[in-house]
Each structure stands twice: as structure tokens, then as C-alpha cells.
Amino acid sequence: MSRFARKERPPAGFEILEPTLTALEAELREKVNQPHEGLRRGESLWPVHQINWQRSRYVYDMYHVYKEISREVYDYCIRMKLVDAGLMAKWKKPGYGRLCSTYVINPKNYKFGTVSICRVPRQFLEPDTVVEDSNTGCRGCASGPGGQRNIFGNKYGQYLAAIQVARKKRALEEEARRMVGKGREKARAEREDSEGDEDSEDEEAGIWAQNEEEAVLGPGDDVQGDVEADREAKKFLTKRGGEFGAGGGSSDKRPRHA
Predict the structure, then answer these.
(1) What cellular component terms from Gene Ontology apply here (predicted)?
(2) What is the pTM of this model?
(3) pLDDT at 46
(4) What one-character-per-residue DSSP string does 77-127 give?
């Protein structure tokens, strides 16, 4: 029995998500159990925040963007706490579509009483300023032009729903070409013979991007301005004004930690 069915039987359609959610759960367990020697303060928690984001983003996009799952499946994931409901609720608000974690927008978590520097839009920073939140490893999750598509700069910042849907579309296109080129009956027989091989190839490919084309896939960015996001940024810059020049950014190109 699937571990997801131990408390409540998953609704029909959950099997679309289960392989990816299982892989992410195993990845998180592996990262948490790794030794933390040599890591900076807070860095050992980066995978927790990042995989939480990726898992939640995957389910969110599969429902809201690609319509690959039903509302029943979506609600089941929230009810079973397989995803971060609070973070997903924030993504629906203008200016928060790339938010890495609810942690970074809680002023109580930062000594200046603001939010993380990763929430500051690029236009408020000097060109080429490198940003890296010390708690999540986020390199910039503010909405607007010039923002990071992969907010973590690693595989955990990839959009797994976009990758899965693209692979599904590619497989269907290849199947259609095979059906047209070889005839329906012959193609069907070949498909049945090779079904096991194709399944093993999919498992070997894994859930993360296998090439640059997949790595840059995403559901699109919300580039509309947002009053709340700008207010956060201005408050951040005002309270930390001593660290920034007249242009609103820092001349120090080393990574800055909130």
C-alpha cells in the first residue's frame, strides 16, 4: 500500500502526482540525514525550505496552470499536508507568485523588522548584486522584470509540473507519429512489447530536468507591479539604508545574507 493511503485513501487521479511526491519525500529524507559539518549557520535547513517549495509548486501548477489534476486531488494534498497550504495561498496574490517561503516575509524572523533581501525586486538593487537568503538559500523571489526564474539556482528551483507535462506531450507526439507511420495495429503491438522498457526509461530519467531545455521550463512569471511587494522592498531598504548606496543597491558583489 502506498504510504499516502495509510490515513486516507487517495482520490482517483492522485497516481499522476504520486511518483514525484514519493521521489521528493525520499530526497528530503536523504538531505536531512546528511552530515552538516562545514555548512554555514542555517544552511542545513536550505533543502527543507527548497523541497517544500518545489513539492508545493508542483501540485499548485498541476492544478492551477496545467489542469492535470482535479480539485479533489488538490484538496487531498492540502488536507494530508503533503504541500504548504500557506505558501500556496500567497502565490495567488499579486507580487508573491515566486515567493520561496512564508518565513522570508515574516518581519519577526529578521533583526531589522523587515523581510528578507530575497524579496527586494532587482530594480531596487545595483546591477549584478548577488543575493542569497541565509535561511532558505533563495536568490531572489520578488515578482517583476529581471527576477530569478530558478529562485534557488539548483534542481530544487525547477518547475517539475512543467517538466512532467512537457514529457507527456512529447511522448504523445512521438506516439502519434509512430501510429501514422507504421499503421495502428502494428504500432499498438510495438507499444505493448516495449511498454516495460519505456517505464524503466522514465524512472531512470527522474523527476528533475535532464537537459537545458527542460531546466528552463516554467509556468511563466507575473511581471505586474505590486504595491505590497514594493512597500516591502522600500521598508527593507529604508531600515538597512546604511548598507546601500544612493542607487538603492550595494557595491559589494559578494553574496548578501538577510
Answers:
(1) spliceosomal complex
(2) 0.76
(3) 96
(4) HHHTTSS-HHHHHHHTSTT-TT---GGGG-GGGSTTSS--GGGS-GGGS-T
Q: Residues 143, 39: contact at Cβ < 8 Å?
A: no
What crossing angle do the helices spanning 46-64 and 71-79 adopt, rounded to 10°?
160
Query: Of 83, 87, 109, 107, which Cα lies nearest the Cα of 98?
Result: 87
Grid cell listed for 126: 545595483
**DSSP at 256:** B
The C-alpha angle with vertex 248 and arms to 242 and 249, in degrees rounded to 5, equals: 80
Grid cell digits, residue 130: 548577488
User: Residue 28: pLDDT above 80?
Assistant: yes
Cell 504548504 belongs to residue: 84
C-alpha cell at 80: 494530508
What pLDDT, on a 0 to 100 scale, did the predictor assign at position 198? 45
| Per-residue pLDDT band at 89 (split at 50, 70, 90) | very high
